[in-house]
Amino acid sequence: MKKTFQFFTAIIVTSILCVACEKEETTITTVSTDEIAEDLAVSISSTDAGITGEMTSTIALAEETADELLKSVAVDTLFSTDSSFVWSETNSPYYSYNYALNVNYGMLFENGPVYSLFYHSDVTGSFDGLRISSVDDRESDWKLSGFENSANEFTLIGSTLRNASSLSKVGNMSSISSKTSIEMNAVKFDKNTLELLSGTLNCEISGSVNATSFKYSAKVVYMGDGIAEITIEKSKYTVDLESGEIID
Would you say residue 139 has pLDDT above 70? Predict the structure, then answer.
């Protein structure tokens, strides 16, 4: 009888442990780096709505303004201006967006014609693409150098903070809430063509996907020819900057 009791007791204990393990396995979820990469790819796109597009627009604005200022601004002075405008696209078959921008930018003249540009922006709006949509806002503080005649490239450094609520249209159709801190490291543009040549973005991303929290470090490397590479953990993704889509 004692052995029979011990036998049944062992069965009951084993059953309880199996149920507990089963329950634990069904409640543990992981956040896919693929979903985070999709959202990050859109945010760095070279459309006007993306960070890369904003950087390119900033350089074009600086170059245009500089030509006029050099004719009239005295040495060692600071020029600055505020501006508000809207970026909107509704005709593209691949995406639509609508963003409001408040921008403050200016140029610091030091020792004659050598100067740098400072740039601050607050951007708020929404993006709707084939694979993901988002409502987001971001704040940027950048510095641009390389205006002297001896420089062949413009160099941009600075930081951007992005808050977003995104919805994936593929895979798990996930709902993503995120906060991304981005540091720009020596992002270089050709002075003649304004083509993006190289540079890196170091990103710290935290938030939740379908109510499951996550925290990742990501690195974006601009490869030239409209391509960037995103690395999250051990996963690598190739991004077409024009569309903001992952192509590999």
Answer: yes
